[in-house]
Amino acid sequence: MRRLAFLLRPGWLALAVVVIAFAYLCFTVLAPWQLGKNAKTSRENQQIAQSLNTDPVPLNTLLPQQDSSAPEAQWRRVTATGHYLPQTQVLARLRVVDGDPAFEVLAPFAVDGGPTVLVDRGYVRPEEGSRVPPIPPPPGETVTITARLRDSEPTAPGKEPFTKDGVPQVYSINTGQVAKLAGVPLAGSYLQLVDNQPGGLGVIGVPHLDAGPFLSYGIQWISFGIIAPILLGYFVYAEIRARRTEKPPTVAPDTVGDKLSDRYGRRR
């Protein structure tokens, strides 16, 4: 037990607490975070791949009501007949298209016999830094569009909408936020136009089918969570072994001759 008493020293206790906390974070936070991102990316890649080989379907089959959304059908191509509401236009700022900054132009679209949806008409490039360029209005007549269904983005924390150059601007394509700015109810999902569509601008392509490094990162965090306690156990074992090999210094007993010599010497 004395050999194990060193484990109660503050230094060893602190090290043990750090290792246990690190392993706990690896298994409960860091690995699930990366594995969750991998699952999301894999799911989105599968949706994109399916959309490329699937014919468009009417929008009303996926968004039958005004409050509908279809996250399971993201990137699916749909068709819709209706008209734009040109009096309301919102820009999504700080976007990047083909490696360069861009605005994405958003406009409500009233579907005949269906909901009003937000349509991403495409992108325009800013002028002189971040100035809004002239944007051609969408057609005012009834048109039929083909687009990809997209999930509403979460709002950017601390980034409130504002108006610049006479146009409302947002930091994310959140249908609820845009609906408040436009004063028009919008469905939960929005549409992203494909090429050669009425009201379309610069075409935003689909992302590359790349799973990314998230799976390998998740496996690495799991490995770190396993290795850290093992290394701590190894250090404890090495310390115990080193202490066992240590022997206290011994003093050789006096021989009888030494004792006699010392005795007679004292008498003299």
TrEMBL record:
Recorded topology in the membrane: Multi-pass membrane protein
Pfam families given in the database record: SURF1 (PF02104)
Transmembrane stretches, start-end: 12-33, 214-237
Keywords for the protein's UniProt record, in alphabetical order: Cell membrane, Membrane, Transmembrane, Transmembrane helix
Region called Disordered, residue ranges: 46-72, 247-268
Polar residues compositional bias, start-end: 62-71
Localization per record: Cell membrane; Membrane
Protein name per the record: SURF1-like protein
